[in-house]
Amino acid sequence: MEARLRSQDFWAGLAFILFSLCGYWFGQKLNFGTPSDMGAGFFPRILSIMLGIIGVIVMANGLLGKSEDVEQIHLRPFLVLVAFVSFALLLPILGLIAAIPAMTIVGSFARKEAMRPVEIAILSAALTAFAWFVFVVLFSMPMRLIGS
């Protein structure tokens, strides 16, 4: 049983199920409607249910069938996700000028080769200036630059 819990299909199915539960949860407040008059929540909920069914099938295949074991887990790719989440959480609180450098610093740890602090600072400044120019100047988006 322990070998089956290390199968790729088991973990992929579990990920599908977790994503489907999140999608269903966040689409829950939207109006579902009927098949002839679909509301805004119809598609997300149906898609979440279908993804959950696929997840159960894939997970069952991992538990019952022959599936390759998961090799070593690499955490670096998750740092990219953490970088994006840090940007999304910090933007409304600290503003654009702090959120982009925070995202850049966290994302720099995802590289195999370490970035020097000067490179991170230059990249952060360039990304911040680019985002300011595009979103604030060109598109006139009401975006906080500093703090809340």
Description:
This protein has 148 residues and is mainly α. The chain has two domains: 2-64; 76-138, no CATH class. The protein has helices at 2-5, 8-26, 42-64, 76-94, 96-108, 117-138. Helix 4 runs antiparallel to helix 5. The radius of gyration is 21 Å and the shape is flat. The protein starts with a helix and ends in a 10-residue tail after the last helix. The model has no long low-confidence stretch (mean pLDDT 87).
What is the compact description of this entry?
The chain is mainly α and 148 residues long.
Question: What layout of secondary structure does this protein have?
Answer:
Blueprint: H1 2-5, H2 8-26, H3 42-64, H4 76-94, H5 96-108, H6 117-138
Helix pairs in contact: 2-3, 4-5, 5-6
Keywords summarizing the entry:
single chain; 148 residues; mainly alpha; 6 helices
Tell me about the largest β-sheet. Answer: none
H/E element order: HHHHHH
* Rg over C-alpha atoms, rounded to the nearest angstrom: 21 Å
Shape: flat
Distance N to C terminus: 52 Å
Counting structural domains, the number is 2
Average per-residue pLDDT, rounded, comes to 87
**Low-confidence region ranges:** none
* Oligomeric state, counting identical vs distinct chains: single chain
Beta-strand portion reads: under 5%
Q: Please estimate the helix content.
A: 55-70%
Class from secondary-structure proportions: mainly alpha
Number of alpha- plus pi-helical segments: 6
* Record field, number of beta strands: 0
